[in-house]
């Protein structure tokens, strides 16, 4: 590899289908230039810390979605129980219709 090739990093290595180049990155709590692997389009592959942070953010997003879905389900369940009770169904009938226990139906109705 010549000086000219190093200056035009990332340097493509066709035998392995990767490029190697340098970039300023905070890795292992060191802000400095590191050698990184690059894909054919010149995009650096992420370092482990970037992968971990990306996965943490993704997990957080999934957790928030799950919490919103749970709240929506509880709200819909509460509306259904309330509506069925207002139509004159007994607690046992509502429990059977909504696949809940009588205790759960009572707890929902007590929240009103």
Characterize this entry briefly.
This protein has four helices and three strands, in the order αβββααα. With 112 residues, the protein is an alpha+beta fold. The longest helix is centred in the middle third of the chain and has 39 residues, at 48-86.
Overview of the molecule:
The protein has 112 residues and is of the alpha+beta class. It is built from four helices and three strands; from the N terminus they run H-E-E-E-H-H-H. It has helices spanning 3-7, 48-86, 91-98, 102-110, and strands spanning 11-13, 18-27, 30-38. The protein has a three-stranded antiparallel β-sheet, with no helix packed on it. Helix 2 packs antiparallel against helix 3. The longest helix is centred in the middle third of the chain and has 39 residues, at 48-86. The radius of gyration is 29 Å and the shape is rod-shaped. The relative contact order is 0.08. The model has no long low-confidence stretch (mean pLDDT 89).
The helix content, as a percent range, equals 40-55%
Strand line-up of the largest beta sheet: 1-2-3
CATH architecture name of the largest domain: Orthogonal Bundle
The description of the largest β-sheet is: 3 strands, antiparallel
Low-confidence stretches: none
Q: Supply the number of structural domains.
A: 2
Predict the CATH topology of the largest domain: Arc Repressor Mutant, subunit A
Structural class, by secondary structure, is alpha+beta
Mean pLDDT: 89
How many β strands by DSSP? 3
What is the alpha-carbon Rg in Å? 29 Å
In N-to-C order, the SSE pattern is: HEEEHHH
Measured distance between first and last alpha carbons = 76 Å
């Amino acid at each position: 590899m010549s000086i000219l090739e190093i200056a035009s990093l990332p340097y493509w290595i066709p035998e392995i289908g990767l490029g190697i180049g340098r970039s300023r990155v905070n890795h292992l709590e060191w802000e400095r230039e590191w050698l990184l692997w690059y894909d054919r389009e010149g995009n650096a592959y992420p370092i482990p810390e970037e992968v971990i942070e990306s996965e943490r953010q993704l997990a957080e997003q999934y957790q928030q979605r799950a919490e919103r879905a749970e709240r929506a389900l509880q709200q819909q369940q509460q509306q259904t129980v309330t509506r069925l009770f207002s139509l004159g169904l007994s607690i046992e009938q509502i429990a059977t219709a909504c696949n809940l226990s009588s205790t759960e139906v009572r707890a929902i109705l007590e929240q009103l």
